[in-house]
Write a structure and sequence with these properties.
about 25% strand, xylan degradation, alpha/beta, Immunoglobulin-like, binds ligand G3I, TIM Barrel, 8-stranded parallel beta barrel, 5-stranded antiparallel β-sheet, EC 3.2.1.8
Length: about 475
């Protein structure tokens, strides 16, 4: 993916290459490109990773200029919180009302944002007339609703939650009982096919909650449905993970495994309704964990929080969002922003369990030069008091990610690492560190003080040009 940062880097590399010619003429040249620009808003920081950062937005946001300003400044993907649901858009049968939904969609598009449509078919928030239907009548009403609403918004929607929350909680792994489910087990795929016909340009997603922990039966059940859909050509492009967390349902440590395994089925994954009840550093750490999990999976294309201010939340007493009731940035906000700017620590493939090969994530040519264990580069002979460990990150057919951990041996006030590439490799992205380029295939990354035993990490992407050799890395400290 090409991000503004990538383009800057490419321009910088061309400049460095030109200067390299002068260096050959015995002129000592040291050129530092500008330090990596950190995104100062959530949308800017996420864009640097090739992802979006979104929020749910309700009609009442238009009555509060403060909330509207934050929404415009921080977010570039918009989900209508209630205004595009079945009860809002078809209050009486075949009488469609798009006024509230249109207000949000038009505002988003006019302000350069994309829209996530929520939701075409759901057991909840059905209009009264639909709640009273069953069988073929209900099936046809549902399909008509999907078709008409998707046609109305055709060309304006990045991704639709075609079906929402169709699986039961608990250990059964079964479908949720609902009037829609009782029309026949194929109601979900029928909805997806209708949505594809109505708006072929929109990504079509299945969206649910309590599907974050890979070991949970509900997660497995949704995974198996998506796998089945992909194998039978049912048009599904993405899976949304609502991500409503609290102390009884914390962010699972295997979240990246879940996201990676779904992505490995050949779908995009998105965090669609993120909120985490709590406060202070524990809340901030959990938000950070969600961002890390998404950043670790190439096909996790974005994160949406379920509202802007705590006071706007559907569970406001749990203060689960990134801005307090006055619109001030919370610790959780800073944690998310910093993690987006630091980038992720990509993990290999999909995860540890039940991985399905995905050609876009796992290149078929397995480079023989790549050892399977992580070598440790000893401290440089220059006698510095830091050491570096290189670990392999995600690999694609044309590029690979690498992660470097710098560890202090004794207290140090600064550290400098030199990353040496081999021809024809080029670095296309750096995260978590400030880089300069004294020569075309030499990158210097520097950082500040570390206490004895403390470590810090940065990462980069190498366009390998056919040479999979790991870069050599040295470290010096003062
Ligand atoms: O607007 C009416 C108001 O006129 C009326 O006086 C009041 C009386 O109860 O109700 C108001 O409507 C409420 C609406 O939110 C707007 O505030 C509904 O009662 C209330 O049920 C509705 O709740 C929404 C909920 O979905 C319904 O299931 C929440 O705002 C919305 O955040 C929530 O969002 C869901 C996602 O769609 C799916 N995933 C879970 C998520 C959280 O529950």
């Amino acid at each position: 993916m090409t991000t503004p940062r990538h383009r800057n880097r490419q321009a910088s590399r061309r400049l460095v290459a030109a200067v390299g010619g002068l260096a050959a003429a015995a002129i000592a040249v040291s050129l530092a490109v500008p330090a990596q620009a950190a995104g100062s808003t959530l949308q800017a920081a996420a864009a640097e990773t090739g992802r979006y950062f979104g929020t749910a937005m309700a009609g009442h946001y238009f009555n509060n200029s403060g909330t509207l300003n934050i929404t415009n400044r921080e977010f570039n993907m918009i989900t209508a919180e209630n205004e595009m649901k079945m009860d809002a858009t078809e209050p009486s049968q075949n009488n469609f009302n798009y006024s509230s939904g249109d207000q949000i969609v038009n505002w988003a598009l006019q302000n350069g944002k994309r829209v996530r449509g929520h939701a075409l078919a759901w057991h909840s928030q059905q209009p009264g007339w639909m709640q009273n239907q069953s069988g073929t009548t209900l099936r046809n009403s549902m399909l008509n609703h999907v078709t008409k609403v998707a046609q109305h918004y055709k060309g304006k929607i990045y991704a639709w939650d075609v079906v929402n929350e169709a699986f039961a909680d608990g250990s059964s792994g079964a479908r949720r009982d609902s009037n829609l489910q009782r029309t026949g087990n194929d109601w979900i795929e029928a909805a997806f096919r209708a949505a594809r016909s109505a708006d072929p340009g929109a990504k079509l997603c299945y969206n649910d909650y309590n599907t974050d922990n890979w070991s949970h039966a509900k997660t497995q059940a949704v995974y198996n449905m998506v796998k089945d859909f992909k194998s039978r050509g049912v048009p599904i492009d993405c899976v949304g993970f609502q991500a409503h967390f609290n102390s009884g349902n914390p962010v699972p440590s295997n979240y990246h495994t879940t996201l990676g395994n779904f992505a490995a089925l050949g779908v995009d994954v998105q965090i669609t309704e993120l909120d985490i009840e709590g406060s202070g550093s524990s809340q901030a750490d959990q938000f950070k964990g969600v961002v890390q999990a998404c950043l670790s999976v190439a096909r996790c294309t974005g994160i949406t929080v379920w509202g802007v201010k705590d006071s706007d939340s559907w569970r406001s007493s749990g203060t689960p969002l990134l801005f307090d009731g006055s619109g001030n940035k919370k610790q959780a906000y800073t944690s998310v922003l910093n993690q987006l700017n630091a980038g992720g620590t990509p993990v290999e493939g999909g995860g540890t369990t039940n991985p399905t090969q995905n050609p876009t994530q796992n290149p078929t040519q397995n480079p023989t030069q790549n050892p399977t264990t992580n070598p440790t580069t000893p401290p440089p002979t220059g006698g510095g008091s830091c050491s570096v460990t290189y670990s392999e990150g995600q690999k694609w057919s044309d590029r690979f990610n690498g992660n470097v951990t710098v560890r202090a041996n004794g207290n140090i006030s600064s550290w400098t690492t030199t990353v040496q590439l081999q021809y024809p490799q080029l670095i296309s992205a750096v995260w978590g560190g400030q880089a300069s380029w004294p020569a075309q295939r030499t990158m210097v990354v520097q950082g500040g003080s570390l206490a004895n035993g403390q470590s810090t990490t940065f990462g980069f992407t190498v366009n390998h040009g056919g040479n999979w050799t790991w870069p050599s890395i040295s470290c010096s400290a003062s």
